[in-house]
């Protein structure tokens, strides 16, 4: 069982696992990109949210700083 599988199953896991750290860095970078994108650039904000969240309902947007 991978550390990610353990995490998703609610078991103890190693948060220093390379796969999990890579995903964490990717998410932090996408959140930074979202925060730095001009509010008028709705298409880019939409693209970033889709990449970050994987799936979502329509008309989702985040107003305040996203961490």
Automatic annotation (TrEMBL):
Q: Which domain of life is it from?
A: Bacteria
* GO MF terms held by the record: acetyltransferase activity
Q: Which residues form the Maltose/galactoside acetyltransferase domain?
A: 4-58
User: Which InterPro entries does the protein's record reference?
Assistant: Mac_dom
Q: Which key words are in the record?
A: Transferase
Kindly indicate whether the keyword Endoplasmic reticulum belongs to this entry. no
- Family classification: Belongs to the transferase hexapeptide repeat family.
Q: What is this protein called?
A: Maltose acetyltransferase
Q: Which species does this protein come from?
A: Clostridium cadaveris
Q: What is the lineage of its organism?
A: Bacteria, Bacillati, Bacillota, Clostridia, Eubacteriales
């Amino acid at each position: 069982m991978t550390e990610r599988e353990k995490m998703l199953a609610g078991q103890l896991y190693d948060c220093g696992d390379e796969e999990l750290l890579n995903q964490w860095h990717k998410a932090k970078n996408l959140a930074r990109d979202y925060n730095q994108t001009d509010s008028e650039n709705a298409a880019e904000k939409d693209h970033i949210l889709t990449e970050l969240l994987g799936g979502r309902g329509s008309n989702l947007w985040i107003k305040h700083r996203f961490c």
